[in-house]
Amino acid sequence: MDEGLESALLYMVLLRFLSGSIELSAATLMWKFNDLEKALMINSMLALVGPTILIVTTGIGVSGLSEKISFLKIICLFTGILLIIIGMKIK
Q1: How many Å apart are CA 69 and CA 84, to the nearest integer?
Q2: CA–CA separation, 2 vs 66, rounded Å?
Q3: How many distinct structural domains can be found in the chain?
Q4: pLDDT tens across 43-78, in order?
Q5: Do 60 and 12 form a contact (C-beta atoms < 8 A)?
Q6: Which domain of life is it from (predicted)?
């Protein structure tokens, strides 16, 4: 395993820990406020965190593997992410 991949993996892990901490903090705030309107507002803010972390961690992972995977596979990965985000927004 080369040094670039190890640092990319570390950054991905740290971002996922950050994301999980934000989610747990949001749940704690919802419980503390005990108010549906505030909970909905907090939940709406979380809607930005999830896709952002997904895109950034995938970008870090792909950049760490850029020498090992083809450009077509990179395009397919980011197309899949885009479709996931579009699917979450469709009602």
Answers
A1: 21
A2: 13
A3: 1
A4: 999 988 888 998 899 889 888 888 888 889 888 988
A5: yes
A6: Bacteria
pLDDT at 89: 77
Query: So what's the pLDDT on residue 65?
Result: 84
* Closest by Cα among 48, 42, 53, 43 to 20: 53
Residue 81 makes CB contacts below 8 A (sequence gap 6+) with 54, 55, 58
Question: Which residue, 90, 64, 87, is CA-closest to 12?
Answer: 64
The identity of residue 85, as a single letter, is I
74 vs 42, 55, 71, CA distance in Å?
33, 12, 5
CB atoms within 10 A of CB 48: 9
Domain that holds residue 7: 3-89
The first and second tokens of residue 62, run together, are 């792909």
DSSP strands (E only) in the chain: none
